[in-house]
Amino acid sequence: MVFDLLSAPPGLPLLDKPLTERRALLTSLLADAPAQLVLSPQSTDVGQATEWLHTWTAAGIEGLMIKRLDSRYEPGKRGWQKYRTYHTTEAIIGGVTPRLSNPETLLLGRLDEHGRLRYTGRTHALRPAQRAELIDLLTPHTAAPDAHPWPQPLPASWTGQLDRPQPLPYTPILPAVAAEIDVDTAYEHHRWRHLVRYRRPRLDLAITDVPPLNSQP
Fold first, then answer.
1. Coil, strand or helix: which one is 54?
2. Which residues of the chain have a pLDDT value below 50?
């Protein structure tokens, strides 16, 4: 999927050209391109963009990229806005960082077909009121460390939201509380690629009521 052009044959730099010119050159360049190279759709029609937002995200597209037509390309800077769609679902709280006395983020999971809790993602930073509420709802996992289904620390490959992920120390929690969360469509290998938004505890749900690991996110 091709969405921008930074130079044109024979090496003409285009960084200072407005998006409209870069887009026109890109369109002409891909006119006879093989089917494997797809030009990213673009529109100035809000109605069209809204339709894409509602129909394409159902197929797994994350959302929209919003750019100014007269914008130049600035390496290392975000000269655009990303608008993602979110939907509400549930997951099981299996850990917190850094400690239960002051939980800053939640580590979430879902049960696989064998009833084992599998790690699925991490929340954004919690608000103070959410932290205070969760302290009284969550119970530390006091069994032997290897009895918890996740390793300590979490492997860097599990927490790949960062450019340079590192192993993540955390406090294991007894997996008994479900959480309502907002997630986007970036769900790969049974994990949410981006941080999710914590909404509230779902004390009315048993952990077996939470969607299983192999369900749609």
1. helix
2. none
